[in-house]
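Here is one chain, start to finish.
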Amino acid sequence: MEQASSVADLVRMRMDGDVAGLCRATRSEVLDVRLSATEMLGGSTGSPEAVETLFACLRRGPRWQAAKALGDLREHGAVPELLRMLAESRHSREQLDEPVVDALVAIGGPEVVRGLVDLCDQLATGRGYWTVRVLDALAALRAPEAVTPLLAALWKYLPERAERVVRTLGAIGDPRAASALLVLAHSPAPGTHLRRAAVTALHALPDADWPPTHQWPPVEQLLRPPQLDPDPETARLATALLARTGDGRDHLWDVLRRASRTPHDPEAPPHAVAAVCAHIAAEPDLFDVDVPERDEHRALLRHHLRESKAPTVRRAAAGALASYAGAEASEALLAALDDAPLSDTVADLVARLPEPPLRKLLDLFTGTDLSVAQRCGAARALGAIGHPVAASELLSALADDTAPTAVRTAVVDALGALRLLEAAAPLATLADDEEEPGTLRARAVRALGLIGDPDTLPVVLACARSPHEAVRGRAVAALGGFPVPEAAQALGEFVTLSAEPHGTEPDIARAALHALGRIGAPALPVLVALADIADDLSEDLADRLVTALAVRPEAEATAVLGRLATSPPTRKAMSTRPGEGRLATSRPAREAASAALSERATPECVAPLAAVLATDMWLGIREAAVRALLKIGTDEAHEHVLAFCRAATHFYGWHIEALDVIAEARGVRLGP
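Its structure:
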């Protein structure tokens, strides 16, 4: 009888459906053959010969691969032996707990659950990884039978190691654990992690099981400490839990009341107030159910928007008021435009109101006796609303040289947001005027890129070579709004110059590559040309070049990616010096291009992906190439994968998965 002496022999046996040959190979004197053959039997149809061989391997080895294969086969008959192995591995150095636990989870069923539950009383004395894997298995199986023994184990773990048990209880989602979780959420913990884990587990309970049965103290009272927790995530989750009940919502409103009466009340610190407002903004309808105090609640939100000393609270109150009061919030929000730290946020909220107050915004914008912050906020809101009625007022303000620079800047941004074609000419004049402030010119160039009027391209090109850094950077980015060859060519020059000593600054080159990706088809010839100097670019720029090529669907882009992926490192790329911007000694674009081809996974990628398999790149890149070829799924693609597997000297799990996929596609069964 034939004996497998190499991995190539195993590939042939797998593709021939030779169960007997693989069973014999599990006793091979060649270690790699023995290991791979055992794991391959997990792709069989569960023939008695394969199962018997795997049981023998569990006793004599290779045990790791045998356990994995039995899990892949969902072989229920292996459960007693796997449970015995798991119990023995509690103090063993053989490290079989990972494949055994994975196999038990894959098999599942009442017997597995009972066996894992029986191990709960040993959790506190097991090795760290063993304990974690048993708990993760119970979480994956979501076994309600584990709740009681886990609660008993929980107290043995407090306080240092209880977090993993709490997470398991949360994953199971059984309401019987709620009381213990509430106590942990309420108790002062030595750190924030355990309290956060308890609140997270409570949050995972179904809404139908809330509030949980807990006689005293009330659930809402137990959740008050975590709602005040300085950890933002803990406070957010506790706020969401309190919002599920009427009593809880009453408590949240009371937090706002306390803070309005006593700004430094320890029961209503600013971060807790902000968490309440944020949840009201996220679920306004929940707080508006049968509430007779609606007017009082709106007044509370207006108070915090106006009076709070903490900008985070004022910002959160603005969002809550906009969501909770809708159009009725407009007056308070318009007044809050005067709050400089909040002005932009409030302007965006005003623009999203059901009926934006256009007329009042125009009055605020044109009111020269109002504050700069208020006028800037009004301009931003007018641009975000997108209504053309504001165009004439904004254009008039743009021409007003006496207006504050901040107001003119806000006007420029608004005109860019509106994408007004008639604004292109005055914006171009402003951008070209070197007597104007540089920041204002830079924003004007950005607006020109948003409008994209071809007549203004010469101005943007000139600004891209401006000595003013902000103007230059904005102009290069703005060129991405002009999908024409002239703009693409200029951007390519900036990238090319970055490869020369004292050439383009890295930030400008990065902006240029990003803009080339936005231009579309006219940028392809430039990107193809830049691929010739990929070795001379920094690693960051090479990645961005590949990203820009990867979004192009043309066959030419695929060909260039293939060339980048498979060309060998140059002498220059194999040695790096300080200041070159390289993190690795390999060719910077090589692995990025290979990854892009794997994500592309079109029939045109078969040849370059096959070439990637023949390179010396790290296995993760070649694994991705194999998976991409399997996704393409043609006979040619499969043949390349088979050739790659035959040439391998060692198999990983993904090699075997690839053979299983190809065998299934060809109708090859490994067994009866």
